Amino acid sequence: MNIGTKSLLFGAHWPLHNVAVTLAWKWLYGTWPTVRELAAIVLHDVGYVGCPEMDGPVGTTHPRLGAEIARHMLGEDMARLIEGHSKGFAEAFGLPLSRLYGPDKCSHMFEPICWYVFRTRLTGELKMYRSMNHGASPRNNDSTILDTEWFRIIRLRMARAGIEHAIKTTAPDGLGESQLKFADILDSVDAGARVKKGEVPA
Ligand SMILES: [Fe+2]
Ligand SMILES: [Fe+2]
């Protein structure tokens, strides 16, 4: 079985990922997704099926399958919602990010770190993600950084990106005080982690 299918069955994109995305949607926007949006959430990552890698040339096109299904069953707007959830796909095809980008990025805040690390070790995703050097902080391939610590910081960085996009697209009346406060918390925790690792001066 290839890594994309494993990811959908029990890895990073397993079925409960969609539950986490739904919770993150409510947290970011203050309202639950509509039934059509929920259907789009369920479909958004199905294109990982059969993918031999996650972030390479094939994995980057993963929104396409779900978007095509949505185009036929839900309408063009839901297809666009799916296509715009992935920055890599949106940039590759000149599309705008959608309202699904933020919840997808924040979704990992809604699951235990150890549980994510355990599952992605089983699928081989963790090794694949950490073998790629994006110039990210912490350095992906630095073996002195524990997997749990690496993911703790990575998920904060992703959440910040999601929050910033949500604020940009829905402010002034889309986000409440609590979300803005949480953005500050993300900043301070992430900065603290980088100081701890000696990547930035205290
Ligand atoms: Fe995705
Ligand atoms: Fe996703």
Largest sheet: none
**Could you tell me how far the N terminus lies from the C terminus, measured between alpha carbons in angstroms?**
46 Å
Mean pLDDT: 86
Give the number of helices: 11
The number of distinct structural domains comes to 1
Strand content: under 5%
Helix/strand order: HHHHHHHHHHH
Percent range of helical residues: 55-70%
Class computed from helices, strands and strand pairing: mainly alpha
Total DSSP E strands: 0
Detail the poorly predicted runs: none
As a whole number of angstroms, the C-alpha radius of gyration is 17 Å
Shape: globular
The kinds of small molecule bound in this structure are: fe (ii) ion
What does this structure look like?
By secondary structure, the chain is mostly helical. 62% of the residues lie in helices and 0% in strands. The chain has one domain (3-196). It contains eleven helices and no strands. Helix 1 packs antiparallel against helix 8 (113-123), helix 3 crosses helix 5 and helix 10 (147-170) packs antiparallel against helix 11 (177-196). The longest helix is centred in the last third of the chain and has 24 residues, at 147-170. It is globular, with a radius of gyration of 17 Å. One fe (ii) ion is lined by residues 13, 17, 21, 44-45, 104.
